[in-house]
Design brief:
With 490 residues, the protein is an alpha/beta fold. The protein is 29% helix and 24% strand. The strands form six sheets. It has a six-stranded antiparallel sheet with strand order 20-21-24-23-22-25, sandwiched between helices. A five-stranded parallel sheet has the order 4-3-2-8-19.
Length: 490
């Protein structure tokens, strides 16, 4: 019997790799997928699903312990960190089971498509057309394929000068290993992940949270009104933000974490906490792949260099966090599927990154799609902007949660929709429809003429569109004086 040469070998069974393998199966291809650790990757474990599960649990707890909603839990509510973590791990296990069940089915029957084989172990290229897979010191298995997809994802980045020990100084990979809620924790980095964990621990109310931010404000990639709304909410939750501060050192001393900051006034402060969470971005998982044996080039950031998911070697592709694109599950899945369709000659349409939807799980929740004002100004795109405060949206009023706003951008001349930002509860429910409209090149009139559900968050988006069209139901002349309605140009 001759050796097996697979149509496609996927390295990594996270969001990009799994999506790619399933699309190749659809096309009747023979696929092998290699995973070094757990199926699902950071999209399931110690990442997207687990952190969002913890965020939902923290919101449930904050709501249950609120005293301004007509009810109060007598005697308080018992809270256990380990039980919270168990619930998080149950969620991850449920999703992992779904993925394994599909692999088992494809290995046994395969359905109408091609077979998909899952192999556990660490892969390394030994030539442009072959890899070796080693699992727990066992004899390496050689796998040959006509095409390869690198989808090994990323890991938390550790800056020089900080030693992560996994106990006192940790990354997001270590959150579930805590024995209890820390009494105090400093978060190094005021980006999305750092602010999400700040929200989670503040909601549970057992941890004094501090955030070190080198910038004058958190979330510098978002408009000032969005960032300041989140910052005000954080401060209400008791979170301390060290603004415009430079971290000079961070180390374990006498069983605690000591950190030294140079403040905006030039003065130095030495503080200490029980734990430090380092959250300064993610690094691509390329170590150990021996990409040099395949001729695959890395870029200046250490990511796999790609053009439309194709690497410098024509039959080797890459998708997801291992490339320089945005580290999001939905992007990774799209890129994995796109790469497979491209490598097998389907000529798929280009991925439309301009309508990329994201959700930031803060308090309050932030949802975004398309351009914000900063982006429009940077790209010199003339725009109009409308803002409707959540105090004017019936669903927010019914939820007794009216902080935040809806912000819609449109092209100044054509009224084409450019972008949306929503700050408030259930913000994510507003963005998919707008993402689709941006993708289709739609205008404000399309939002105005569509019948929206009532009462629902998207009605705030509709009112923004109507305000920019000059036919709003609620008039800026009345409510604009209170800051609830505003519009302008840029």
């Amino acid at each position: 019997m001759g050796k097996t040469v697979w149509d496609l070998c996927v390295i990594g069974a996270g969001p990009a790799g799994f999506a790619a393998a399933m699309r190749a199966h659809d096309l009747g291809k023979h696929v092998v997928i290699v995973e070094r650790e757990r199926v699902g990757g950071a999209g399931v474990h110690a990442g997207a699903l687990s952190s969002k599960t913890m965020w939902h649990l923290s919101n449930d707890f904050a709501t249950a312990t609120a005293t301004n909603r007509g009810y109060r839990a007598p005697g308080g509510i018992e809270l256990s960190y380990r039980l919270v973590v168990e619930s998080v791990q149950e969620a991850a296990a449920e999703r992992e089971h779904v993925l394994h069940r599909q692999f088992e089915w494809l290995a046994s029957s395969g359905g109408p498509g091609g077979p998909v084989r899952l192999v556990h172990g660490a892969a390394r290229f030994i030539s442009p057309t072959a890899i070796e897979v080693e699992h727990h010191g066992q004899r390496a298995e050689k796998i040959e394929a006509r095409n390869f997809l690198i989808a090994t994802g990323s890991r938390p980045r550790c800056p020089d000068g900080i030693e992560v020990d996994g106990h006192h100084i940790v990354t997001s990979d270590h959150i579930e290993s805590f024995d209890d809620f820390p009494a105090s924790m400093v978060i190094v980095g005021a980006g999305v992940v750092g602010c999400e964990f700040a929200t989670i621990f503040a909601n549970f109310g057992r941890t004094d949270i501090r955030i070190i931010d080198r910038q004058p404000r958190i979330l510098p990639f978002e408009d000032a009104d969005v960032a300041e709304q989140v910052a005000a909410s954080f401060e209400h939750l008791g979170i301390t933000i060290h603004r415009s501060s430079r971290l000079e050192s961070l180390k374990v001393k006498d069983g605690r974490v000591e950190y030294v900051l140079t403040m905006s006034d030039g003065k130095t402060r030495t503080l200490n906490v029980e734990k430090a969470l380092v959250s300064v971005g993610r690094a691509p998982n390329t170590d150990g792949l021996a990409l040099e044996n395949a001729g695959v080039r890395l870029d200046s950031t250490g990511s796999v260099a790609v053009h439309d998911t194709r690497t410098t070697v024509p039959h080797i592709w890459a998708a997801g966090d291992v490339t320089t694109d945005i580290a999001l599950v939905n992007v990774a899945e799209l890129e994995g599927r796109y790469a497979v369709e491209a490598m097998f000659g389907l000529h798929p349409p280009a991925i439309h990154y301009g309508a990329l939807s994201t959700i930031m799980f803060f308090e309050p929740e932030v949802a975004s799609v398309g351009l914000n004002e900063l982006m429009a100004q940077e790209r010199q795109v003339p725009y109009r902007v409308g803002v409707v405060g959540n105090r004017l949206v019936n669903r927010n009023i019914a939820m007794r949660s009216t902080k935040g706003f809806v912000k819609l951008l449109a092209a100044r001349d054509s009224a084409q929709i450019l972008g949306l930002r929503v700050v408030g509860p259930q913000a994510s429910s507003t963005i998919q429809g707008i993402a689709f409209l941006i993708h289709m090149g739609a205008s404000l009139q399309d939002i105005d003429q569509c019948v929206h559900p009532h009462p629902a968050m998207p009605e705030g988006v509709q009112e923004c569109a109507r305000m920019l069209l000059g036919r709003s139901i609620l008039k800026p002349g009345v409510f604009g004086t209170d800051g609830f309605l505003r519009y302008g140009e840029g």
